[in-house]
Please model this.
Amino acid sequence: MAETHSLQDLQQPTVSSKVYVQRDYSSGTLSKFQTKFPSELESRLDKQQFEETIQTLNNLYAEAEKLGGKSYLEGCLACLTAYTIFLCMETHYEKVLKKIGRYIKDQNEKIYAPRGLLLTDPIERGLRVVEITIFEDRSIGSGR
Amino acid sequence: MMKNCEYQQIDPRALSVLPSSAQNHNEKKVQRPRRKWEVFPGKNRFFCDGRIIVARQSGILPLTLGLIVVTCGLFFAFDCPFLVKHLTVFIPVIGGVLFLFVVLSLLRTSFTDPGILPRATPDEAADIEKQIDTSGSSTYRPPPRTKEILINQQVVKLKYCFTCKTFRPPRTSHCSLCDNCVERFDHHCPWVGNCVGKRNYRFFYSFIISLSFLTSFIFGCVITHITLRTQAGKSIVQAIQESPASVVELVICFFSIWSILGLSGFHTYLIASNLTTNEDIKGSWSSKQGAEDSGNPYTYNSIITNCCATLCGPMSPSLIDRRGFLPDEAIPVVSASEIELPPFTAKNDSHMCTQSTKDVLERVVNSFDSHSLCPPGTPKTSPLSVEVSSATAPSAEASPLAGCSRQQDGQPVAASCPPFSRNSKRDSLHSINPAFRLASPSPSMTRATLILGDVPDLGFIPLP
Model:
């Protein structure tokens, strides 16, 4: 497919394939992703790196969905104010989701983009999968 | 496509200018950017520019609201003056508080996303197809697909949803009325005109509990009212003649109390054992296997923990990004300099573009919009008067007694939705999703050859 060329460094890479890391339901309905290393990434990424990323994501989601004093307090407070309190403040879950977004961006910049990969935030896929896009490794510059 | 070989500064806006032939079905480029709710594939209606979501058939929500408002109105107008004079001024106060709580809970239940799962993007669906072994002839409809997993050492079957093209997470069910998979699906309630699922179950529960209190309170007050009148030496008939509205209230409350109290009790039991109506009806975790330990794998084995988890647990965000913009029309609200990653080609699947950091930031900005919910009590439009389709409410109960109780016979639609659509609804996927045809499964199809651009109703990106 033709792509836009430019004289700049930035070249639009083509999407070679996409790998999907599915959910791990072994602990119930908690948001957790499988840490099994997909074979398509073997040439691009360390197994260790990948597992670390997914494990951190799982820990962050666990933090978001944790049942504890803080979440109960938030729930009760919300109930008492007829849930209008969420008009002014964001829920704990949303705060953690933002944290996850930042983490993914960070991982992309540091680890995945230099290898021609891109992590998609699972929230954009309905928390069903972690989508990893593999770009064609065609230019010299992308192997930074 | 050759005309795209221009030597120019790469600008994310340029991605949407690529004249993909597959996207010429409407003039997106010249229209204002559209939000994702406008292309949502399920059968839902949206108001307030996507802030409010209801099922397509609002069913008898207007009736529910009408009954509550009329009964309370009559109560405040006819019974309260007498009771205030003879008893205490707190009666209308308590009544008012309860009424407010009931209406707010009801509206919140009706207008909240119950936990709809967005449908799989075509790439995801293709990936899943690849992993499933199909013997694939073009006319053979594949058998229902299931996947077995272990949850807390118990075998649970995950079913494949042909409409949403994913394996449903545990406790998720597909509602045929709304045409969506809903997480922790309880039932589709025609009285509130929406599914009851993970995100609005607590509102639904507070609605039925407060409604129980309200009906009992009104019932008690009306009885007291009539009793006080008869004590002043009059007969009951005379007392009723003086206050005919009380009889109306009595009748409504009397019939409602049975069903509402029953429903409240039933749902209290469900919450205490961490079950959903759907699971209870299907007997998923009943010990019909005899010796085999097939208990509920989701229960925390403590009533208090179960209650807290269901009612006071963390409020998960809506996974369907109703107010986000469609990606190929998205206005880049953050500067392009944020992009350190290489931008991506639009090709035929621009709305399948993986998100760049720009979009992540954009999403964050957009998320502030989605928090400013219209206050549930005052919708900007008047949805209740807009879609009164009560003439065709297919699941309308014959009598007000029905409610959402599972004990009602002959009204399966009210109680639960068929969790797995084995019927002709599957044909709808051909109209919804021309790009991905189950009729001709070709698992070896490479992603590059997928025609993705002409599917406007998939691949929308959910927002936290």
Notes: DSSP finds 13 helices and ten strands in chain B. Residues 16-29, 330-357, 367-464 of chain B have pLDDT under 50 and may be disordered. Chain B touches chain A through 77 residues (CB under 8 Å). The first strand of chain B starts at residue 44 and ends at 47.
